[in-house]
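Quick one: structure tokens for this chain, please?
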Amino acid sequence: MRHWPLRWFRFASRAGRRLDERFTPCGKWLLSTAGFAGVFGADPERTHAWLMFTSTVALLAVSLFASRLWRPRLSARRLLPPHVTALAPASYVIAVHNEGDAREQGIIVVDRLRDAWPSAASLAADTAAGGGDNWFDRRVGFRRWQRLCRHLRGALLAPLDLAELPPRTETRVTTTVTPLRCGWLEFDRLLVKKPDPLGLCYAIRELPLTDRVLARPRCVPVGHLALPAAPMADAAQTPSRTRGDGQEFFALRDYRPGDPLRHVDWRAFARRRQPVVRQFAAPAARPPLLLLDASAAPGRAEDFEALLTIAASLLSSPQSQAAMTLAIVRGPDLPAEVAAGADALDCLALLEPATGDLLDSCAAALASAAGRRPVLFLTAQWDARRVALARALDAWPALAIVACDSRAVGDACARALVLRDGARSLPSLAGGLAALFPAAAGAR
């Protein structure tokens, strides 16, 4: 797609928003009347439409001039929560302080998010992905461009009505925001509006007020996660150790009632004049690994968001928080691991789809963890290359694959693909994904 239509798209979007913010519903009706009257009144000698055009334009001009005379002394601040959840309503407070001596009535507060414009490449990818738009929009793409703008902006904020602002008083109002995606929601400014005496235009006081809040992926209970266990022979090769019933000496500690007498260290007992027992180390089985593929198909943002939801739901499960780590494949290097918890959710919230295909890096990461620990591999694509990788890994134990690709299953947005007898080893995971995405074709 050429770049010159995007400039017109931005101009049309800004102009439409300015008109919506400046004029009241009655003012919009009068503005449309002036437009039609101007078209039909092009010849002022033969029609009375010209008189309607001039009168409506005069009323709008007087209203605009009157709106410029409003100069209140206002300040505001937002009280945001620590974080919000994508696709879930969240509340926050806007506090407006009237620093003047006059009582303000009929106030409307409009909160604004920072503008974000999609690129020509992202618009072309969204157009190539297809959809239910009409022929004109497939050729022009303005509605698609608006939809991408809303997604990049992150949320839609409704205006709030304040009955009045008493002088020298702070008024608080609670509003609701529903994030459309994960990541930062960046607030840009706050508009305080008041209708003019004619009720046609709004007098606007613009307050530069910047804030941001992180939108985490939504979490849905998926039940108990029972991953197949890795072979003990492979797990014993790991250098990590923990206290247990092994054969390697670990440490000394004071004797406690019930400790076996064969563990008493008699030499240390003779030196310290109190009973001391020996502790032994056992090989520590490494926790299951949640390996996430950050590559996504162009124009399939909903698949990537669904993938983040699955990962967040699995990491937030009470049964897996203490026994699972997250690793995200973002490039050619082996990924670093993050323990399940708030840090892992923040990593998922800030994750953006990779531009290229990272299947080779994912295969290397899977090879480094194969046979040593249970691995749950999550990907937003299910193409021929990944099918071939799954067949090549069919003999690996303790491996499960979850593919979230709407193109692979029609209208479904999630699908559990478990290798070998994993469908019997992961019944709770399959049921949890079916509850998470009711439209999915199910686990198999």
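The domain at 289-436 is CATH 3.40.50 (Rossmann fold).
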